[in-house]
Amino acid sequence: MSHIFLLVGAPAVGKSTTAHALAAQFQKSIHIPVDDIRDMVVAGRLLPGPEWSAGLVEQVALARASVTQMALNYSKAGFVVVIDDFWDTNSHLQEYDSLTNLHKIMLLPSQQAAEERNIKRAGSGDGNPYIADGIRAVYEQLRNDFPNGERSSWMVVDTTDLNVESTVAQILTKIDKEK
Questions:
Q1: Domain holding 49: CATH number?
Q2: Distance of alpha carbon 58 from its chain centroid, rounded?
Q3: What is the rounded CA–CA span in Å between residue 23 and residue 5?
Q4: Residues 10-35 pLDDT 10s
Q5: Rounded to whole angstroms, how far apart are CA atoms 116 and 57?
Q6: With 70 as the cut, is the pLDDT of residue 38 above it?
Q7: 3-state DSSP call for residue 107?
Q8: Does pLDDT of 179 surpass 70?
Q9: For residue 66, what are the contacts with CB-CB under 8 A and spacing of at least 6?
Q10: Is 149's pLDDT higher than 80?
């Protein structure tokens, strides 16, 4: 089975961009954005917010179960798999625990850097308010979930001052050191 990477973090930290660039480093690879799977819901899609309903929990779990099966299928066929998803304090992403050869990577720039990226992406004003709320919520969740900053099973990459290429290089260097 090939490597499987799980990149997570708050909104606007560069998960999708980094995941795509990381996947591009391998001869056979696939980038699976969980948001794309969730966006396939045509009617009744629920979005994360301050309160998670049972329906939202179910939809996120269904998307992650689908992504997990895709990852297993592609990995078995020799593809390197790169999944991008958001940090979820409800499950701590345990839906992915069945994946073997999994590298869990948390992209964690400063909260201020994430907020500035949101504003830059929006092109004007204060940025996308939904994304801004998501950034604040996820950083608060991370402070609560890891009060001492310890993330023992996660590779944490501070991307505050890194571009995409440097972020990918740092991830690959850390993976090589794990061997």
A1: 3.40.50.300
A2: 18
A3: 9
A4: 999 999 999 999 999 999 999 999 99
A5: 29
A6: yes
A7: strand
A8: no
A9: 37
A10: no
* Count of the separate structural domains present in the chain: 1
Domain that holds residue 90: 4-178
pTM of the model: 0.93
Burial profile 6-33: b = 16 or more Cβ within 10 angstroms, e = fewer? bbbbbbbbbbbbbbbbbbeebeebbbbb
Q: What is the C-alpha separation between 32 and 84, in angstroms, rounded?
A: 6
Q: How many residues does the chain have?
A: 179
Residues 6 or more apart whose Cβ sits within 8 Å of residue 170: 157, 162
What is the mean predicted confidence (pLDDT) over 28-51? 94
- Cα dist. 159→9, 12, 28, 44, 53 in Å? 11, 11, 26, 35, 32
